[in-house]
């Protein structure tokens, strides 16, 4: 584990703190770039999954030395962050836009994708007016999000093609006359899944919308591609992207979030107390709903490391190691619980725990519920001498809580 000797050092790392791994971010970017080079596809960072802009120079070819072509936004503020801090292409999609948002999006974006024919027709005149007189390569391109009605077994809350989903236009509601002025189609079915799931999705898209794909200048295959996960079938992915590029003579886009920052960050926490209830419960200096909300929403069980005999070791399943306890947060929510874990010895106040793979989604979803302060944000990586450094990027205080309200 990169930087592991830093994470348990209270003198170097504050608690709680998100610690980003420069080495892993760069390694992930290299894998993504290999896909781009093999296929000609353009990969965008999905800001909904990872938006730590202090690390964008590691990822962006326009604001640093990274490989990515731009970012995709789900809101005006994400679009502005992409324009200011990431550079390159800025793509935007939301389930709905209002006029105020559209007026601002026109100044920020290169692609705008609409969730319905009605929204496209409402804003098409404003976009046409904006594009009038502008250079052809600087005009805003517009797309429609389609729903191929093909699910890949994702958790329901994260399944964009679940029954009743509001995301994308189904085939029975698709109006071919709306394609006038549309330059591309967008679809998204995956959530942390492999190339085999994409292959099945592409078959469904062709089955439902194949007759309109040849009209596309670009095709956006959305996010959820677990490209940087060990064992991911890169050859199959590249074969699929190349086939669609050649078949439809279209620019292919992917917009992963988790693949960009997978395993590239941790949340460092500290044990405050250990109490006895129906089982031992370790109270931490974090709040699970505040700082790791996906543990409750998804739900999932994050990996936890702790220091034992001078090494960073993984906590086990309940009952697997000598001592089992429940890890819980400090908020007033009764369900503020991360799960049950086992350790080589009982935890003690002051002991550090490290939650793995916390760069994606957790950081962008943090809240100040109960007035709990947001974790600090830092980064670790090799210095010129090859030693690992830690650098603080951001600390939060009372003003961040107060300024959310009035």
Automatic annotation (TrEMBL):
Organism: Desulfovibrio desulfuricans
Record key words, sorted: Decarboxylase, Lyase, Pyridoxal phosphate, Spermidine biosynthesis
PANTHER family to which the protein is assigned, alphabetical: CARBOXYNORSPERMIDINE_CARBOXYSPERMIDINE DECARBOXYLASE, DIAMINOPIMELATE DECARBOXYLASE
UniProt-recorded name of the protein: Carboxynorspermidine/carboxyspermidine decarboxylase
CDD domains hit by this protein: PLPDE_III_CANSDC
UniProt GO MF annotations: diaminopimelate decarboxylase activity
Catalytic activity of the protein: carboxyspermidine + H(+) = spermidine + CO2; carboxynorspermidine + H(+) = norspermidine + CO2
Family under the similarity heading: Belongs to the Orn/Lys/Arg decarboxylase class-II family. NspC subfamily.
């Amino acid at each position: 584990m990169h930087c592991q000797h830093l994470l348990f050092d209270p003198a170097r790392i504050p608690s709680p703190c998100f610690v980003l791994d420069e080495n892993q971010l760069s390694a992930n970017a290299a894998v993504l770039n290999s896909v781009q080079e093999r296929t000609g596809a353009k990969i965008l960072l999905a800001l909904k999954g990872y938006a730590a802009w202090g690390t964008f120079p590691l990822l962006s070819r326009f604001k640093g030395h990274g490989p990515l072509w731009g970012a995709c936004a789900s809101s005006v503020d994400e679009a502005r962050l992409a324009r200011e801090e990431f550079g390159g292409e800025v793509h935007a999609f939301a389930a709905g836009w209002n006029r105020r948002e559209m007026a601002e999006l026109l100044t920020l974006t290169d692609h705008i994708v609409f969730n319905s024919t009605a929204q496209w027709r409402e804003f098409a005149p404003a976009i046409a007016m904006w594009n009038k007189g502008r250079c052809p390569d600087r005009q805003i391109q517009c797309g429609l999000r389609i729903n191929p009605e093909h699910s890949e077994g994702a958790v329901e809350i994260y399944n964009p093609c679940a029954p009743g989903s509001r995301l994308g236009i189904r085939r029975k509601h698709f109006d071919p006359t709306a394609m006038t002025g549309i330059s591309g189609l967008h679809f998204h079915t995956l959530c942390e899944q492999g190339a085999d799931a994409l292959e099945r999705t592409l078959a469904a898209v062709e089955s439902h919308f194949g007759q309109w794909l040849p009209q596309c200048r670009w095709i956006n295959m959305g996010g959820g591609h677990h490209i940087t996960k060990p064992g991911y079938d890169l050859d199959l992915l590249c074969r699929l992207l190349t086939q669609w590029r050649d078949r439809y003579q279209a620019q292919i886009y992917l917009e992963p979030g988790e693949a960009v920052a997978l395993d590239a960050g941790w949340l460092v926490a500290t044990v405050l107390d250990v109490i006895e209830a129906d089982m031992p419960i370790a109270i931490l200096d974090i709040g699970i709903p505040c700082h790791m909300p996906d543990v409750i929403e998804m739900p999932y069980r994050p990996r936890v490391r702790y220091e034992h005999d001078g090494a960073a070791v993984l906590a086990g399943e309940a009952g697997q190691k000598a001592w089992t306890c429940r890890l819980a947060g400090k908020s007033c929510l009764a369900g503020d619980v991360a799960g049950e874990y086992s350790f080589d010895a009982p935890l003690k106040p002051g002991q550090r725990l490290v939650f793995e793979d916390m760069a994606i989604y957790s950081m962008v979803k943090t809240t100040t519920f109960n007035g709990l302060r947001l974790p600090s944000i830092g980064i670790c990586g090799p210095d010129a001498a090859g030693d690992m450094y830690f650098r603080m990027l951001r600390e939060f205080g009372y003003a961040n809580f107060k300024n959310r309200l009035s």
